Records
---
Amino acid sequence: MKNTDACLHVRGESVFIDDRLVPEGTLYAAVLSSPVPHAKIIEFDISKAKSVEGVEGIFTADDIPGVNQIGNIIKDEVLFADEEVHYIGQPIAIVVSKSDVISHKTINEIKIEFVKFTPVFDPRESYKKGQLITPTRTFSLGDVDNEWKKCDLLIEGTVESGGQEHIYMETQGALAYPSEDGTIKIISSTQAPTAVQRIAANVLGLPMNKIEVDVLRIGGGFGGKEDQAVPWAVMTALASFKLKKPVKLVLHRKEDIIMTGKRHSYSSDYKMGLSKGGKILAYEVTFYQNAGAAADLSTAIMERSLFHATNSYYIPNAKITCISCKTNLPPNTAFRGFGAPQALFVMESAIYKAADKLGINPSVLQEKNLIKDGDEFTYGMILKNSTARKCWQTAEKHYSIEKLYKDVKEFNSKNKIFKKGISMMPICFGISFTNTMLNQASALVHVYTDGSVSVSTAAVEMGQGVNTKIRQVASEVFSININRIRVESTNTSRVSNTSPTAASTGADLNGGATRIACMNILERLKNFVSDKHKNQNLKTVEIMDEVVYLNGKKTGLKWDELINEAYTNRISLSAQAHYATPDIYFDKKKEKGEPFAYHVFGVAVTEVTLDCLKGIYEIDSVKIVHDAGKSFNRLIDLGQMEGGVVQGIGWATIEELMYAKDGKLLTDSFSTYKIPDIYFAPFEIKVHFLENKNTQVGIFNSKAIGEPPFLYGIGTYFALTKAMKEFRPDLKEKFSIPLTPEKVLLALYEKP
Ligand code: MTE
Ligand code: HPA
Ligand code: MOS
């Protein structure tokens, strides 16, 4: 079935923050943010700004009744800068007035002066200065130091990957209303309603039950609203609390790009040792993560880089280190893949280089080292139900890889200016929040007397189709038409203590809770029917396709009649349920455990054509075999695959963040920051879902789909590098993402 939101989206009827009808008297906030990367504030004067016609309030750190602290994992981030600023775009104050225009104009009337300090933007430099976000962590398996001497081939290198701007369609924003008794309701574009609620409560000095957060849907998050929807929501809550009026704040696109954090850029050093036969015997890597000016989610992202550093390979001796470095950039944050893409790119770069040394295709090394059942990950988990090899073999057959290589070879031999390249990109992604605690969710289900059903969960609909999947769960458990079921907004008063909708776990966790709640109601309904037929030798009661069956025989009793009767007999038609992923744990002292419910595998075959005169390229095709378990909703899963792949390709190729020397972001608009459009997207994306219906994994035997496809985008980098090498056999690969056409051209004609 279709994503049930599709019709609303296409008609423009979906309601995002800026589409809401606001109450009379709503005020508009605009943010004054730092124009300098690191400085002390020595003068701050709002007297002129305050007297501007229409301005109702200006709020700074001094106006906070609770604490000026919004750090989530580590308490190292203020809502408003007080004495010092640490990055360009750091909020200092908000102006609240009758209109968005007045508020934005008035920002310029605030007088502010700084004494500048020397900023640091490079993670290795900040590491040398000892400016770390958190102590460094290392995962290890076997003994690399002992293994090097047993290796026939040793390679070393440095790998760079750039950041990435989220470009969710709906910019960050929130709307807060005061209610009676000092309570506030916040409508927020967030993936984490409870984080907004908790932090707003702390900043306002209120208990959490005085803050209600509601999220109907968000116009994309991609991780960018897991932590970073908080400041804007809290600012509206603060102003609304102080002024006792509704306050709205929606960032303009440019403000959003400048003020919010991005995917972390990484700079990494690796060493790899192989046997003559191409077995990877040892791998050591150090990731320097550019965290920006505060922790945000960096520590969790660092953890996922550690988990996924060996991708889908078994490497018996490995030492993986991640260093989270503090720099004067906006705090970097979650972005689809959550540290895994950066780690996988280093692994694949090492394999490419090793293959180059051995004079073989990287795919030979990739295949030889694929992880299988019984192999151990660096974090101690023994792999079960691996489909890494099955995906690989299916891809080879399904997409006639041998012929593909032959065709490309022939093309390249016939063309001087145009060159083609192909790559294989296997992936492995662990499903569950790496922080075990977060792997829980709740649902609240009501059946109304007309037989219609209302479901509330912790899941936030951000375009990924989780609401449709939740409807499918309720429809399946009750065996009723999906049109009877509505999924409500995500609301902290209805469903409490929500984990963010992230880590691709939305459907597994919230679908899991919904399933239990529906089963509880179903059980009561069945018992009710059994009791009614107490003395009639009744063995089974079932509901199938909205009709009650007794002892396997169809009755005349329909769903809505049953519900009505149950209500009349005072049977509860509501249930609340909680789901927690079973059997996962992680011991941070030993850095060992079983942190994931399961792993997602797959492989992508990418073919590109490079114009070696201009450096521009086309992505001919990305052909994927992907293990989605028993795909829960093929159309939605296909959409996630395609969107993820294209977003991953954008990161690997054209999305380039460029900064001036003083740290000012130069690519702060769509004219300078290019994301893939329909012309740039692969000409063809083929997805073959692996037939894998037997393993018990996620909700209804499906596997989470949200983030893993992003990783396939890395394959485009290697396909392009292959094509470049065809044109210039002495090419010096730089292993640096993004590989923009400009960089391609420079590398093709670089003096030897
Ligand atoms: N798809 C759309 N359309 N919009 C989004 O913001 N976010 C991605 C992915 N797919 C996103 C998306 C990210 S980062 C995650 S973690 C998952 O969706 C979250 O949703 P899920 O857990 O329900 O898969
Ligand atoms: N993935 C995504 N988001 C998260 C995670 C994770 O493992 N942990 C905390 N937030
Ligand atoms: Mo996704 S980066 O876990 O929101």
---
Amino acid sequence: MEILKGIPVSPGVYIGEAFLQHSEEVRIPHQFVEPEQVEAELRRFEDATRQVIEDIDKIRKQTEDQLGNSLGAILMVQTQLLKDESLRQKIIEKIRNERYSAEHAVATTLKIIAKRLAGLGDQMLAHRDSDIYDLQKRLLKVLVGAQHGGVGHLDKPVALIAHDLGPSQTASLDRTKVKAFAIDVGGRTSHTAILARAFEMPAVVGLESISTDISGGETIIIDGNRGIVILRPDERTLARYRKLQQEFQTFEQTLIKEKDLPAVTSDGREIRVHANIEFPDEVNSAVTHGAAGVGLFRTEFLYLTSGIMPDENVHFEAYQSCITRLGGRPLVIRSLDLGADKVISTHAFHERNPFLGLRSIRVSMKYPETFRTQVRAILRASALGKVRLMLPMITAIEELRWAKRIIDETKQELKRENQPFDAKIEVGIMIEVPSAALRATDLAKEADFFSIGTNDLTQYTLAVDRGNELVANLYSAANPAVLDLIFLTIEAARVAKIPVSMCGEMAGDPIFTSLLLGLGLTEISISPPSIPEIKKIIRNVSYEKCKQIAAHVRTLTDTPAILDYLRGRLGEDLPGGEKFGAV
Ligand code: PEP
Ligand code: MG
């Protein structure tokens, strides 16, 4: 038996057979062709291109029918790449001028492009990188006539294990057979992770070596709640997980039935539980899981999936779509948080430390026109429903002042144009950098609300990259230094009488619910599938007890002691819930 720890990206427990997808290295039959074969080779390339475009379009339509336009747009990027004239010409030139075989021309050209992107050192191009490799695989399969890696021919349910899964591969998985997946690479914001959540398929990513640790066919447990994968489990573990799986399913069914019950503690304190979304379509999932609104719309996914800067109307339509689906519930739109690991091809700076570099509000300040465009759309959308505007990664008050000035100027512009908007739209900030938490008192005087982004706050406080498996053991929002900053933020908001929420992953982790309530939070924003569970915990605790828990935690001085204590409390807060945390 072997236990691997990765990044949980989609909840649920799978027990069953592992199916290993090999890296699908396609053997290229020959590199060069005779001069008289060149025209035929060009035709082969054109035919393969047409077929791949048709294949992708088919998958895209299926995806759009099932999940909506935004997710289908992920695949649109690949079709656009394939139709890109300069890319096609590069391949054609290699066949015509250097007499490359179509396979060799495709493989070399796309590899060079992918490597160049990687060489820019810009982590956000990793998304485009995997699109290119995915496309390369598709073209080569058609050209070489290779079988589809076996996944298309499954005859029983399996968990798919692979080094990586490209977005089009994930979207085209036969979900009657592929019930879960676990891969070596990836992170929470990768296209693959987004699709896994949309499919509600248990998934763990970032396992480093799972594709080389198994040979396929063995029994595997994938625990998408905890990011645990167990290879060749022994009888005792299997029995434990079977029971856990059954209890988890029953528990989930009960939770879903209760999703619309209010999130009010046993002594009457009401907590607003909102949803984090990346696409307008996800509002449906937010509502069906019982969200009171959307507390974080990560708008950068509008850029990341289309590969082009959206114009004002693309922004506006996305926001309008959210507002319509929300049916009167509030919506917090965060301005673009590009940079670091979330990048697009036009942002091609080489940065040695991208998480400490040109990221988020800094990108907006460098490209104010892009920010103005988005602000115009947000303001116009504010005439249609309850909309708030949130600024990410504020590190100093000047940044907030700059953004507010642009927002004011944009309001004047819209006024001159007689365009309706909410003149009193609230402008809030994310507290996700220690400098902001330390200066929260000043910031609270000028921001209309706070939302604590613990994903970044933890990494910036502890100097631990949130995406680096090598230091993952050091990354914990339960570190007393992080908790101090959270406390400072909540206190500053309370004194200034402004609302404070938390939208980092910490807020969706059942272990922390009592603590966060005890620290004074009355609003959180979490991923839609976590909502029913967290709401149930809230109903099972009293605010008085949460305050005692928080007071006790603040006397503890090390992370393991804090985690142990909170884990112990979870059993009481969520009857049965401790079983899902105790792996
Ligand atoms: C955070 O940092 O906690 C957050 C919610 O923002 P993101 O995960 O998009 O960086
Ligand atoms: Mg963040």
---
Amino acid sequence: MTAAGLTAKRGGPLKGRVRAPGDKSISHRALIFGALATGTTQIQGLLEGDDVLRTAAAMRAFGAQVDSLGAGRWRVTGKGGFSEPEDVIDCGNAGTGVRLVMGAAAGFDLSATFTGDASLRKRPMNRVMTPLREMGASFAGRSGGRLPLTLKGGSLGRLVYRLPEPSAQVKSAVLLAGLHAQGGAGVIEPEATRDHTERMLRAFGVEISVEDRGGERHIDLAGGQKLTAADVDVPGDPSSAAFPLVAALITPGSEVTVEGVLLNALRTGLFETLIEMGADLSVANRRQSGGEEVGDVTARGSTLRGVDVPPERAPSMIDEYPILAVAAAFARGPTHMRGIGEMRVKESDRIALMAAGLSACGVGVEEEPEGLIVVGGQGANHPIAGGAEVVTHGDHRIAMSHLVMGLAAQAPISVDEPGMIATSFPGFVEMMRGLGAEIDPT
Ligand code: S3P
């Protein structure tokens, strides 16, 4: 890939079988839990994207031994705790990395300074600092709770925290801090968010209770529990699989299979929505792998119709709305995405950037404070003009979404800052080209 930009243009149908890169959420957690544990954790299928490599470096800085053994295989030897890092921890573009590591570090007697790239330095950290402060950690940072900031960890007390916004990152930070808090910690989730932390803590020998009370999830763990090293087999990332799958849906005559995709029900909101839109999407070979359900997902060129996406589905597909908006552009009738205000505080303001990008490509869109309406065409699979140069603000998912749109638009679509795609999907361009996509340096 070049720094100049990438351009996608319309070609023939996409065909083939591929493997999605390792799940980003599970990859961060595998490294962090391995570093907190005592003993040696072997990881297979780790996502070797920039975000996760930053977390690997952070774990070394906090005292774990972290070795790459080649092709997604990693070994983490933890000391059962964190020691004070000698230098600033730079988490790059990764909100998950910085927020989970802050939680994991908060219960240790250390001081650590965190920073990130220009995007991460704009994102809200108060959402983790507030509960961690209530537990006893202290922070000094920039105004508005922005990075860089310094955490002073130490002895923590119990907190039961009701999440003000549905965030698996905040839940995970509180639970990880709770492992080293007097009395542990609890989290109440009015809306369920991805549960990889709960599942993986169990795999590392931690007792954690999860109860449904009146439609809310109550999660609790006792303090002072030790993690024991465990092997982790990272499934394919459904958030990455979404790009080749949607590309196949909007490109007539295509048939693409992505193997080994994570099918955890708290992550599959996009697949559910696409099926409601009439997508020919099927799952074969459902199996258990490393405590999670996985399967091979096949998408074939489809005639899509617009749908109403309910707000309660947002946590299970929060990273997938940009690519859903592309599918919606090729559908008959409007698609209304509601309750997606969290999109505005991701790697970029994704509601604003998708609205701008779609509109530059000739798609009718309407931006709402917490929603997006993609008008779709008069007829099914109507032509989308394309022909735009899209500004991504360094957001990997905005870049990949517009490149996918370019594969089925009338005129080519270009994106800037293509290097950022490697934060979550190294090899995206090569994989898409292998399926027959025409994506080239601008
Ligand atoms: C993640 C949680 C989500 C998601 C992010 C990964 C995680 O963020 O957008 O890509 O691994 O816990 P929030 O917790 O902020 O919703």
---
Amino acid sequence: MVTTHETDKYVYDFAEGNKDLKDLLGGKGANLAEMTNLGLPVPPGFTITTGACQAYLATGREPDGLAGQIEAHLEALERAMGRRLGDPQDPLLVSVRSGARFSMPGMMETVLNVGLNDRSVVGLSDQAGQNDRFAWDSYRRLIQMFGKTVCEVPGEEFEHALDEAKRAKGTHDDLDLDADDLRGLVETYKKIFAKHTGREFPQEPREQLDLAIRAVFESWNAERAILYRRQERIPADLGTAVNVVTMVFGNLGPDSGTGVAFTRDPGSGAQGIYGDYLANAQGEDVVAGIRNTVPLQELERLDKTSYDQLLDIMARLEGHYQDLCDIEFTIERGKLWMLQTRVGKRTAAAAFVIAGQLVDEGLIDLDEALHRVNGAQLAQLMFPRFQLDHEFEAVARGIGASPGAASGAVVFTSARAVELAAEGKSVILVRRETNPDDLNGMIAAQGILTSRGGKTSHAAVVARGMGKTCVSGADEIEVNVPAKRFNVGGRTVSEGDVVSIDGTTGKVYLGEVPVTPSEVVQYFEGSLDPERTDDALVRAVHRIMTHADARRRLAVRTNADTGADAARARRFGAEGIGLCRTEHMFLGDRRELVERLILAATETERTDALAALLPLQRQDFVEIFREMAGLPVTVRLIDPPLHEFLPPLEQLAVNVAVAQERGEDVAKEEALLAAVRRMHEENPMLGLRGVRLGLVIPGLFAMQVRAIAEAAVAVTRDGGTACPEIMVPLVGAVQELETVRAEAEKIIAEVVGDSGVEVLIGTMIEVPRAALTAGQIAEAAQFFSFGTNDLTQMGWGFSRDDVEGAFFWRYLELGIFGISPFESIDRDGVGRLIRIAAEEGRAARPGLKLGVCGEHGGDPDSVHFFHEVGLDYVSCSPFRVPVARLEAGRSAIETTGSDSR
Ligand code: PEP
Ligand code: MG
């Protein structure tokens, strides 16, 4: 029997797809299909799948069957349109557009007007009502775009030729070039093309199409696309789909135009109609911010029929997608065409406000609202804003394109931004308009300021995506990049001068403006009542946070070492302390006691030093226990090597030498120096620290245990409640823990007596060996807390204090990891150690309490992982507590992980 293998399906007509096929058809293709099936006016076309791109990128050639499928779909398109691609009399023209699973604005390629050649340009002119100018302008755009994108002809050469043509005509405006000028320009462009490629500009329409499709496939691996993916954590192997769409023209005269619209304000979330419109222009002109647009509402005056139709479609789309939609459209001689829609990117504030509104409107439920916001957005809303008084007067006002308050030194190029940022300086990248090549600079800068472009310009879209402050279209500013300065209101601002930009109001200030806390923080702190305020953001945050708390399984604790930190964290919703590091309690005016402890020559000297430290420590813990009022408090016994409490070796050696030279009495300093020398370690992070210290310095841990137990008893006797959990750091073997525990239990029993105080004893899991022998360690531990900082350090063998600055940039560049494993948990490696320890620990001791207290406890993605592996709580710095609460809620409702891009 013969079995036939159907070739993979690589091409889908718009009528065959739908919005849920983003993996296959990319976001743009899936949504074009959805709109087509909704009966909206979408120019006909088809989508080549991401699978075809993946196959092309893997093998360097188009997969079998693709060419035939394109042929068949093209023929169907030609039949439907009644025109043939590039037909000399009545040409069908198409655009070839990239469109990946996740939106990557401006990062990949588009070629418009495919199908034009020396003959069809005449047919296009006839079609357009003998509009020669339009036809030749379209042709020169094709050669320019095709040359640059498909054949890597340097774009400046075309731009230079265009400038020359304008100079010859004595104008600055493209629109002054007539048909003859443009015909001449086409000839010049063709020569440029031939010079760089060694061949004539391809006249065969199908060849143009195939080469353009191939160029879009390849643009997936363009440097800027790779960089963007890394920044946005988009997987590298998805590939892009390619959309082949019938061209419609917004540049056919005053009754044509193009625009971008949002169904709600993507900046604030407010309801209404937002967008930009540009008459007599092509779509690319709006997104690139090349000419300043007019507000969408103007369209009502210019073309009421199209405006009403557009509003109607926007309402339908929003109802259909149940979310803010972002739309691109073109009007060709009074006929409206929808070129794109997607669930629109929005600012952090808008994300919360819109989610709340959609719940009110009954379009989504609270779970869905929670799904649609994320911890990174919440963190952004907790940033301070400018504190303005009469001293600061805005020198310019643009569009608040991406919120936040940013101050920094002005730079005019991406390269300079990167350079100064590497020196640790805050910079504001100032450009007339940004383009995708500015991505590096935008990443490096604190904020972005442009003098051209609207809310939908490249700068605005990319900055919002990155959560970076951006003011666009501040047109009072005259930017002079070569001279490295800008002029505004008669003043000159040069490279290096400091400016401040407010991404909410769009205002620009000279100098550094002080900042004020966010209203979201005021709400968390309890000084803004969500029931009383008319601040829509605070109300939405309150509502969603309340739901997250109701849904989450993970408890959220905080890392806090002082009463003040503990108090703040409680206001932020912390349900206990997951890590109280005791080392800072050995600094300041206690340094001298610690020195005495380290230098003690006799048993008595040592016990005296410890006895002097005991009441001080007890008081520390009393404060914290009182503040936490019966919530669990995990106190970690001292962790860093003791020499960290002594002066640095070099400084001490110099002091001693100088003092000796002067004949001063240096006995004490000499003893100190000898101790520092004795304690010097080549690898202190792997040396005498944590539990090892407790086992080597008699009485040290015992003093701390006693202080904790006495503090708990004192608080209880005063009518309070204290729930201390003593945590032993850096345990690698159960015997270490058993030894500490035996001594601690004796002290606890003696101190606690019949006070009713209960003290748990547990351990950190932060050494790989501890994770791998967790079953044994659990026998001696009442709880585990994962120290993911050290676990990452020792799991990877990365010195945590050195590597991020030293070489992580290269690892990120090479894609060895997409984000530092110190920032977000490495699920495969370090995560596996956690999984093993959790499983084996709980197998040995059912119900073993598990938490995490490394930095990862406040990282959104990591919180999802900790939820998945079944930890009981995460602990993080006070400021991250709301973020962890929100993400814990989101993890509980999302079994498939976070996907809020
Ligand atoms: C850890 O290692 O993750 C931890 C919390 O301890 P520290 O950062 O104090 O070493
Ligand atoms: Mg540690």
